[in-house]
Batch of 2 targets.
Target 1
Amino acid sequence: MTDKSGIECCPPNCRHLDTVAKGLIAVSLIVDIFMCRKDNYGYLIHDPATGKTAAIDAPEADAIKSALNARGWTLNDILITHHHIDHVEGIPALVAAYGAKVTGPRAEADKIKGLDVLVSPGEAVSVGSVDLLVRGAPGHTLGHIVYHDPVGRHLFTADALFSLGVGRMFEGTPGPMWEGLVGLKNLPDETLVYCGHEYTVANAKFALSVDPSNTALKIRAAEVEKAREAGRFTIPISLGMEKRTNPFLRSDTPELAKAVGLPANDPVAVFAALRKAKDTFS
Ligand SMILES: [Fe+2]
C-alpha cells in the first residue's frame, strides 16, 4: 500500500499514515515490529525523509534480514540497549551483511563486542533526520539504556520496562531502578512504548494479583488475552495506559503499598517488594 506521498506504507502497527495526516512526515519514524527468537520483539525504525534504517537491538539476524527484505530497506544502524545475548547475538551477521554502525551503552562497552559508538544517558543518536535521546534505566543490567524519539513519541525500552511489568533486577538495586522508571514515567502519556519481549499476558496475571481493583488493568488484561489468542502483538502500548495499569509504575500509590503491606510514603521499598514478589510468582 502507498500513502499520498507515494512512499511505501505499511501494515499493522505502522503509524506512518497517522503521521502523514498530521503533516509530520519529515520527522516521523516508521516502526516495523516482528518477532525474533522465542518471544523477543524485533524493531526496525525507518526515517522516510532520508531512507535511513536502524534496528533496535539485534536479537536474531535472520529475522531482522527478513524484515528488511520485506520492506526493501537496508540497515544503516544498530542501537543496542544492554549486553544480554538475546539482544546482541545478531550483531556480527548484520554488520557482515550491511556494514551497519553499532551504537550501545558506554557503561557496558566491555560486555558487548562490536560497538562502534558509545553513548551515555543524556546523549543523542541520529537515525537519518531523527534524533533519539538516550535515557538511563539501570536495574535489569547496570548500564541499560533506552532510546526515546520525543517528536514521534516512540520509546524503545527493551528489558527495562515491559507492558504491565519490568525486567528482572539482575544487576541493579531498587533505588536507581525506580528512579530510572520515574524518568520514563514523566514522559507524555501519548508516548508509545516498544519493549523487548512479549510477556504481557504473564505480566497481567501478576498485576491483577497485586492490583485487583484496578478497572483499567482488568480491561487491559482481558484485551491482551484476546490479542494473544488471535496472534496479535500487545505492543506498542501508550505510556499513559502503562501508568494506569503497570503495578511497578504504580509503586508510589496507596493501592500498591497496601498490596505489599508497606506504608505509602516509600515507593522504593514498595517497588523492591513488588519486584521480589514477581520473581517467585507463578
Ligand atoms: Fe535482558
Note: The pocket of fe (ii) ion is lined by residues 82, 84, 140, 159, 167 (CB under 6 Å).
Target 2
Amino acid sequence: MKYIPPKFSKLSEMAAIDVGRLTEDEARTILEGIRWPKGIFCPHCGSKKVTRIEAKSEKVRDGVIQCNDCKGQFTVTVGTIMQRSHITLRQWVQAFYSICSHKKGVSALQLQRNLGLHTYRAAWHLTHRIRTAMKQEPLAGLLKGIVEVDETYIGGKPRKGNGRRNKRGRGTEKTPVMDLIERKGNAISKPIEKVNAETLKGAIREMVDKKSTIMTDEWKAYRGIGSEFLGGHGIVNHGLGEYVSGDISTNTAESYFALPKHGVHGTFHHVSKHHLFRYCDEFSFRWNFRKVSDGERATQAIKGIEGKRLLLKERGE
Ligand SMILES: [Zn+2]
C-alpha cells in the first residue's frame, strides 16, 4: 500500500504517530493557531497589525513577528509558560499531547527519553509548566449540581522497622487531598494543610456554586455546610461506594477518587508535598476533558499557556 503522509491542519484531529512527525515549522503553525485563533495580535500592545520577519540570516530566530504599531518583536512563546525555554516547539507540542493522552500521566523520566531531552531537569520543568497550563482558573463557583466531596491521602509511605504502623485515612501523616466532583461532570482536587471543618468547608464555599447540593460522608467536620447551599447536604457512605441508593452514576465519582491516588503511586514515585497541587491540577484537567479526543485535550491544555504565572523556583539556578 502506498503511504500518503497526512496533511497537518489541526492538533485536535491528529494521532500520536503524526504528532511525532511534526516539523518545527508545523509545530509553530499549530501553536500559533491555538494561541491566536482569530489572527495574530501583539502581546505587548494588542495591535493586530503585525508583520512576520522572514529573514534568511541565521542570526534571526525563526517565527519572529514584528508589531507595526509598537514595533515590538515577539514569537508564539512570548508571555506564555513556554517563554525562555530551550525546548523546541515540536517537543512542546509532543509533550502536551503525550501528557494529555495518558490517563495516569507521564513521568519526567519517560518524557526525557521520548523527546530526547538532554537532562532530566529539563523534562521535570517541562512537565511542571504543562501542569501550570492545565490549571483551571478561576475556581470560584466552578462546580454545580450535586457535588460529592471527600478526602484522599497521598504519599508518605510508612517507615519500615520502627514498629509504628502507618495509620490510614484521617489522622495519617500522608498529605490530605480534597476531591470535589460533580455527578457526571467536572472535578477539582487540591491538597489541604489540615483536615478540619474550617479548611474543608472553606474549600467547598470557594469552589461550589451556592445552588448546589453537597454530598459528603458522615464525618462531623462537614456538619452544618448544608445551610449554606440551596440543595442542602446529603450524607453518604463513601467507604462502601454507597452514595445514594439506586443511583448508579456514583461509580463515576468513585473512579475519579481513585485516579490521583493511583497515578501518583504508579507513575510519579516521588511527589513532594510542595508540588502535589500540580499533579492534582493535571489529574482534574484530564478528567474534565475525558470525553474528547487526545488531540482536542492537548489543544485545550495548550490554550492554558497564556496568562499563567509560573511560580516554579528553578532549583539549583
Ligand atoms: Zn505592539
Note: The mean pLDDT is 82.
